[in-house]
């Protein structure tokens, strides 16, 4: 579980304010909004990569942030998957064994000895997911994990997200894909210009949004 | 033939030692500056300006420094191989530090984000950055080595091109050309090119190795 209260982050000309946010175990919270709304900043605050200027964040267990352009180390696929565990001091042999299990879950075990830099876009995201999941985080913070992926890879990544949700992980998913948000989310939050416009259970959010700006956004109008 | 081997080995020794000496100080500085992601403008400007240091000016500086009346004259390093190594290392230093800084800075933010997001410490950020900079290290070493093995100004002034003592491939090419021994000069030039390519290829192969 991850929760935030009175969260604020100020930049020159832009302030992100999130009065209240909660991502529960076994649930997906979709964060929606146009580019520049503060979605990635919110994830980085929740992960601890950015310090807030005000407010509190409560994390029950580790939260792992997955970048929309995940950095892959200049090492093999297996070494990349084992990297998070190695950072935690897990012995090399055990880390590699666990990493192999995760690689097989994301369908990359056959590529384990190959250099990670040669992977396709979809494989890179799946490897980054395996690397993150190998550390057994309680919360996954996913920043547009399927951006620029083909439908087959989108389906694979979404299946993984569903599996991890079923395993009890709290998931915060930033996405520009409204259909994906509808398919995966239990709750949704709409950010616009750094402010939370609306937040609520996914069915109500998508079927009967209260705020006119949310309605406009969901109907495909240009809002910013 | 024996003299050619002697000159080639001396060139390799002088250039290799100067590159290593410059790397000893240049890498830590470059890594430190680059690890911040946004290197300080003054430091970056100084290093980039240093990449264009004229070898003859460096040679002249060391000549004054090491000549009998100079501040380090008592060391007796003028017209010696160690003196040449010192001058060459000054030429290689900004190249190695600058390449390291630019290469590390390009990766610093992404590596920091990855390590921190997986719960790693600041020390682990730096260790990972160091490990990820293998190609940068290779590029910096190749640039430094290539610059010093091919320069002629500083080694001539500081080394004096003394036969069987401080003559290296570049100074030998100059001497043979002046004597009109063009075939010999061309042969020495070919050896110089071959040695530079060989060392660079070895470095690149080393840098291409992926951790399994």
What can be said about this structure in brief?
The complex is a heterodimer of chains A (224) and B (212). Chain A is an alpha/beta fold and 224 residues long. In chain A, 37% of the residues lie in helices and 26% in strands.
Task: Write up what this structure looks like.
- The complex is a heterodimer of chains A (about 220) and B (about 210).
- Chain A is an alpha/beta fold and about 220 residues long.
- Chain A has eight helices and nine strands.
- Chain B is built from nine helices and no strands.
- Chain B has helices at about 1-35, 40-50, 55-65, 80-115, 120-130, 135-150, 155-160, 170-180, 180-210.
- The interface between A and B is medium-sized, with 26 and 20 residues.
Mean pLDDT of chain A: 95
The overall strand count of chain B is 0
Number of helical elements of chain A:
8
Instruction: State mean pLDDT of chain B (0 to 100 scale).
Output: 92
Strand order of the largest sheet of chain A: 5-6-7-3-8-9
Number of DSSP strand runs of chain A: 9
Notable characteristics:
heterodimer; A: about 220 residues; alpha/beta; 6-stranded mixed β-sheet; 3-stranded antiparallel β-sheet; 9 strands; B: about 210 residues
Question: Could you outline the blueprint of secondary structure elements for this entry?
Answer:
The complex is a heterodimer of chains A (224) and B (212).
Chain A: E1 2-11, E2 14-23, E3 28-32, H1 39-47, E4 54-59, E5 63-66, H2 77-87, H3 92-105, H4 121-133, E6 139-143, H5 151-166, E7 170-174, H6 178-184, E8 187-192, E9 195-201, H7 202-207, H8 212-218
Helix pairs in contact in A: 2-3, 2-4, 3-4, 4-5
Chain B: H1 2-34, H2 41-50, H3 55-66, H4 81-117, H5 122-132, H6 134-149, H7 153-159, H8 169-178, H9 182-208
């Amino acid at each position: 579980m991850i929760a935030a209260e009175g969260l604020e982050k100020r930049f020159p000309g832009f302030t992100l304010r999130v009065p209240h946010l909660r991502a529960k175990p076994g649930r997906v919270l979709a964060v929606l909004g146009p580019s520049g709304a503060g979605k990635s900043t919110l994830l980085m605050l929740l992960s601890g990569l950015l310090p807030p200027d005000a407010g509190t964040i409560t994390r029950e267990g580790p939260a792992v942030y997955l970048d929309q352009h995940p950095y892959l180390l200049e090492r093999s696929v297996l070494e990349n998957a084992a990297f998070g565990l190695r950072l935690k001091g897990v012995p090399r042999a055990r880390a590699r064994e666990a990493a192999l299990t995760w690689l097989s879950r994301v369908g990359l075990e056959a590529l384990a000895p190959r250099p990670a830099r040669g992977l396709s876009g979809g494989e890179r995201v799946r490897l980054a997911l395996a690397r993150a999941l190998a550390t057994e985080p309680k919360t996954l913070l996913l920043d547009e994990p399927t951006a620029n992926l083909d439908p087959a890879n989108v389906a694979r990544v979404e299946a993984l997200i569903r599996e991890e949700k079923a395993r009890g992980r709290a998931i915060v998913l930033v996405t520009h894909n409204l259909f994906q948000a509808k398919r995966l989310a239990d709750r949704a939050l709409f950010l616009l210009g750094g402010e939370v416009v609306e937040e609520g259970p996914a069915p109500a959010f998508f079927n009967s949004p209260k705020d006119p700006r949310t309605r406009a956004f969901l109907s495909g109008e240009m809002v910013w | 033939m024996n003299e050619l081997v002697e000159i080639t080995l001396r060139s390799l020794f002088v250039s290799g030692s100067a590159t290593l000496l410059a790397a000893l100080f240049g890498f830590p500085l470059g890594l430190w500056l680059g690890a911040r992601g946004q290197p300080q403008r003054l430091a970056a400007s100084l290093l980039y300006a240093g990449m264009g240091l004229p070898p003859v000016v460096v040679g002249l500086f060391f000549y004054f420094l090491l000549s009998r009346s100079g501040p380090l004259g008592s060391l007796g390093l003028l017209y010696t191989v160690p003196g040449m190594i010192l001058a060459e290392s000054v030429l290689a230093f900004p190249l190695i530090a600058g390449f390291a800084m630019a290469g590390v800075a390009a990766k610093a933010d992404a590596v920091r984000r990855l390590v921190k997001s997986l719960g790693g410490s600041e020390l682990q950020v730096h260790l990972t950055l160091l490990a990820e900079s293998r190609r940068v290290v290779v590029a910096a070493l190749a640039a430094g080595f290539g610059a010093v093995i091919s320069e002629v100004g500083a080694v001539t002034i500081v080394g004096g091109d003394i036969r069987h003592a401080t003559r290296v491939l570049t100074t030998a090419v100059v001497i043979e050309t002046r004597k009109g021994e063009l075939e010999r000069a061309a042969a020495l030039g070919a050896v110089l090119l071959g040695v530079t390519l060989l060392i660079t290829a070895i470095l690149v192969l080393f840098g291409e190795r992926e951790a399994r």
